[in-house]
Amino acid sequence: MRNILAGIAICVVCSTSQIGWADALKPHSRLGFVLVSMRTAMFETKYMQECRDGMAIGNDEIWWKSLSRQDRDRLTNSGEKEPAARRAMATRRGPHQEDVCWKPELVADPPMRIVTGSTAYGLNLDSETEGNATERTCKHQNFQSPDGEQGVDNQMYRLLGCVYGWRANGYVEGVADGERHDSSKGVWMIDITPLDRNESSQRVQVTFSRAVDSMPKSATGTILPFASYRVDQTQHFNATVEGTLTNGILTTKPVDIRLPFYGNRVSTEMYIRDMRLRLTIDPNSGAASGLLTGYHDLENWWDYIRKMGYLIDTAQFSCPAMYQAATDLADGFPDPATGKCTALSVAYQIKLVSGFVVRTELKPSEGVSIGQPPNTNGTLNELFPKRPPGINTRATPLGTVLTDIQGRTLYSAPAQGTASSFSCDSSCLRDWEPLQAPWSSKALGEWSLISRKDGPDLWAFRGQALYTCKRDSKPNVATCEGNGWSAVVATPAPKLPLWIQRQETSLGRIYADQRGHTLYILVGDRGEFEREICDQTCIDALWIPVEAASDAQTVGEWEPVAHGATKWWHYRGSPVYTYARDVLPGQFLGHLFGGASVSAKNYWSALPPEIADMSSPRQSRP
Q1: How far, in Å, are 94, 164, 307, 311, 494 from residue 603 at the CA level?
Q2: Which pLDDT value is given to residue 517?
Q3: Is 239 exposed, middle or buried (0-12, 13-18, 19+ CB in 10 A)?
Q4: Backbone phi, then psi, for 59, in 5-degree steps?
Q5: Which of 337, 469, 485, 538 is most solvent-facing, going by the fewest CB within 10 Å?
Q6: Cα(512)–Cα(397) distance, integer angstroms
Q7: C-alpha neighbours within 13 Å on the C-beta side of residue 89
């Protein structure tokens, strides 16, 4: 593996409070920013005058009104069962109980209640003020901006402006912003490089990247400025476009771009056509805010919506009505075959803080070559039987990782403590919590105790003191490795076929084929999945089985199994597939296809399926 620190380039953030914008960007200087908030731009009046027909009707209300009084009482415990708990019933309204959020064309709900007002935030994207069709757009109704700009294109606002979940205090985007803050997933950066010498209006180059480091926070949870962020150099997350910086206002030319996205438990990416920025950079704080506009690919956007699970009820909208309205309102990039537009004009309000962008040589999209550790078989308990009570394990691509009783990853660092010398000082203890041993604990096999005069005994494994990381936002994640710290691997990863590579993604390290395309299995019952979500024709169109050579042999948990005249690779008894819409290395658009809610039983998972209990997976028929 190449040295990941080779070829570092740092974006120097200028102290704009001390200099005028005419000379803010000198040659070889840069401005760097990291995203801290992104919401659909909503123009809202006090009495919702923009929603003349009222607010959107939800799946739950439509389902509820379709029931008799007796069925309402029977199915909802006389109304005691809340809408979030009724989602499975409220969305399975298809002729054969299909999920109408995954198959919205199966039923005809009352039409979506959309914005009828004439004012919206956004930009004139097509240089057409009357809403007439152009070579790249369909006929549509334009808006006027609050400051009087004509021809504003923002059909996404027309679609979502009357849905409670998307409005100022709505649940959908408030939760998404909060999840990004807590997890640092789906966070992207821009850095701005001057192309001209110091002029009042400079040509600049704007580069977009995904951040792989966590965002540091103050005691009140505010994202701190001027942190350093390493770049995920997955190729399709690194786009460059030319722009202009004039008196602190950045505007860019249009560019098609894919940006990482995480929110409402969904990890995916945003595909924006003709994306352009209009940002105002504050010379006092160095922060930036403004609009990200363009045409959001309809299929890409709907894939996120249908994966939100329980939020479909919390946000109060009907999936069939919203899908039909989105299709009708789409105004960008006509399909050559049908003439129907395939994207929605949109404006997102974004906020960024200053940061240092660190570029490294390692390219995860190329895959990380894996060694061939000794093959191991059997369950985790058989592999690692001697461990103290309260210590658990988790299967990962690295091997069997140790966790505490709550599922939090255990770490060690040689410099911070051994069985004979504990040296985690007060600065270390701000981020790390030593693993305490119950008062009655005794040494066991590779486990020993660290005695302390000023506190309870601590556990050590193979001579190293153990810790949990306070920055890990939830169980089953390991976000704190680096600077001498590493997750504790009790047993090495099982042997893998030579054609498999590992890739770093926002999901963690996942498996991919030789092309870098993510590998998946179907979790749950295939018969139910076909009935509710995606029938055999759908599966044949989207999911491609990974074929094995005729002479392929079983390797660890990977087995070639005959399917007619060919062989397919199976992982722990389940057939392995790639997803047809993953067209670039590092994409995982098929992950959680079928649902993201905690109650979802049948869905596709990127490998290894850490979100699923795969210790004894159900056999999925081919």
Answers
A1: 18, 28, 10, 17, 25
A2: 95
A3: middle
A4: -50, -45
A5: 337
A6: 12
A7: 19
**What is the CB neighbour count within 10 angstroms for residue 132?**
12
Could you tell me where the beta strands, DSSP code E, fall in 411-507? Answer: 411-412, 432-434, 447-450, 458-461, 464-465, 467-469, 486-487, 489-492, 501-505
Q: Are 435 and 512 in contact (CB under 8 A)?
A: no
Closest CA to 481 of 230, 276, 281: 230
What's the order of all strands across the beta sheet hosting 577-579?
Answer: 543-545, 577-579, 520-523, 603-606
Lowest mean pLDDT among 524-528, 563-567, 594-598, 610-614: 610-614
Share of the chain above pLDDT 90, in %: 51
Rounded CA gap, 338 and 553, in Å? 47
Single-letter amino acid code for the residue at 8: I
CA distances from 127 to 30, 38, 245, 340, 521 (A): 31, 25, 21, 20, 46
Beta-carbon contacts of 435 under 8 Å, excluding residues fewer than 6 positions away, are 404, 410, 458, 459, 465, 466, 467, 468
Q: What distance in Å separates the CA atoms of residue 602 and residue 595, rounded to the nearest whole number?
A: 8
User: Domain limits of the chain?
Assistant: 9-42+114-359, 60-106, 380-492, 501-606
Is 68 a residue whose pLDDT tops 90? yes
In angstroms, the CA 19 to CA 77 distance is 66
Taking only the tens place, the pLDDT of each residue in 292-325 is: 999 999 999 999 998 887 677 667 899 999 999 9
| Residue type at position 384 | F
Alpha-carbon 95 to chain mean position: 32
> Hey, what are 378's tokens?
């059997």
Asked if 529 and 521 touch (Cβ cutoff 8 Å), the reply is: no
In angstroms, the Cα distances linking 264 to 261, 463, 622 are 10, 41, 31
Q: Which DSSP letter does residue 224 get?
A: P
The rounded distance, in Å, linking the Cα atoms of 189 and 35 is 6
Burial zone of 40 (CB within 10 Å; 0-12 exposed, 13-18 middle, 19+ buried): buried
pTM of the model: 0.77
| Cα gap 152→127, rounded to integer Å | 9
Using DSSP, state whether 604 is helix, strand or coil: strand
pLDDT digits (tens, 9 = 90+) for 376-412: 333 334 345 577 888 888 877 677 889 988 888 999 9
> Whole-angstrom Cα distance, residue 40 to residue 166?
7
For residue 543, give both structure tokens: 């999911």
Q: Which residues pair with 504 in a beta bridge?
A: 509
Pairing outcome for strands 341-359 and 227-232? parallel
Give the closest residue to 93 by CA, choosing from 69, 70, 61.
61
**Sheet with strand 411-412: strands edge to edge:** 432-434, 467-469, 411-412, 486-487
- Whether residue 278 is predicted with pLDDT greater than 70 in this model: the reply is yes
Give the DSSP H/E element, type plus range, for residue 229. strand 227-232
Q: Which positions ≥6 away from 57 have C-beta within 8 Å?
A: 109, 110, 113, 316, 317, 318, 321
**CA distances to 249, 254, 350 from 240, in Å:** 18, 11, 19
Counting Cβ atoms within 10 Å, is residue 71 exposed (0-12), middle (13-18) or buried (19+)?
exposed
Q: Which residue has the tokens 């919590």?
A: 433
The Cα 271–Cα 237 span in angstroms is: 11
CB–CB of 572/614 below 8 Å? yes
